[in-house]
Design a protein that fits this description.
Layout (H helix, E strand, L loop, with lengths): L3 E4 L6 H8 L4 E5 H16 L6 E7 L3 H11 L5 E5 L4 H14 L3 E5 L12 H11 L3 E3 L5 H10 L4 E4 L11 H4 L4 E4 L1 H4 L4 H18 L1
Helix pairs in contact: 3-4
Bound molecules: cytidine-5'-monophosphate (C5P).
Length: 212
């Protein structure tokens, strides 16, 4: 079973990354690694991965700025994570048109995984998601109620879910609550044996999915 997306926010040994690439369903790269490695470093890391490369820049800007940013990265990956709260017109709408043209996918953040996030404005975010019709959504493993709501509202969307391990949710929680994939970072790249950890997590995911 391949339901782990590795959130690589710190570098890992190239040999380990090569072995990991066939074990995970994708890799998520964000600002920490981009700023540390530069684009050339990122290119080298991504040589090991041939699909489902997600850039998590949490884009939240006007259309032309987001299009400029994604233009720099579009040849390196498949998908971009974008904040929904920034709104549709003159922002997400134009970015979506651009990404569609480039055959790239967009994930909208439906809710964050940390305590400070406020889901009171989910009804607004839901409207933006409906207007955008993105490929997928990011919804938190740490907040089962909102994750289930997002799944109910958008059953056809691919849901990727962070918050497992370091942020408190248990392996398999998000899958049981409607996520398609679990995004896991520190619990993997900080472990002594990242590949062994991935294999162990996959076993737990399978067991949990059989129970829920
Ligand atoms: O290390 P950890 O497993 O907590 O990593 C989670 C990853 O998912 C981080 O890269 C974090 O920025 C990202 N993320 C999140 N919550 C969201 C969206 C993305 O934790 N709502």
């Amino acid at each position: 079973m391949n339901k782990i997306i590795l959130a690589l926010d710190e570098p890992l040994d190239y040999k380990i990354l090569k072995d990991i690439s066939s074990q995970v369903a994708g890799i998520k790269i964000g600002w920490p690694l981009i700023l540390e490695q530069g684009l050339e470093g990122i290119k080298n890391i991504l040589k090991n991965f041939d699909n489902n490369i997600i850039f998590d820049l949490k884009l939240a800007d006007i259309d032309s700025t987001m299009i400029k940013i994604t233009t720099h990265l579009k040849n390196l990956g498949d998908s971009f994570i974008v904040h929904a709260f920034v709104g549709y017109n003159e922002s997400i709408r134009e970015l979506k048109e651009f990404l569609d043209k480039e055959n790239k996918k967009m994930y909208l953040v439906s809710s964050m995984s940390h305590k400070g996030w406020n889901d009171n404005f989910y009804p607004y975010i839901k409207e933006v998601i409906k207007m955008t019709n993105p490929y997928g959504l990011v919804a938190p493993a740490t907040r089962p109620k909102i994750l289930k709501t997002v799944k109910k509202d958008f059953p056809e969307k691919i849901i990727i879910s962070p918050g497992i391990g370091a942020q408190g949710a248990k392996i398999g929680d998000a899958l049981c609550n409607g996520a398609n994939y679990e995004i896991i970072g520190r619990s993997i790249y900080n472990s002594k044996d990242p590949i062994g950890t991935i294999l162990e997590f996959q076993k737990i995911q399978e067991e949990r999915l059989n129970e829920c």
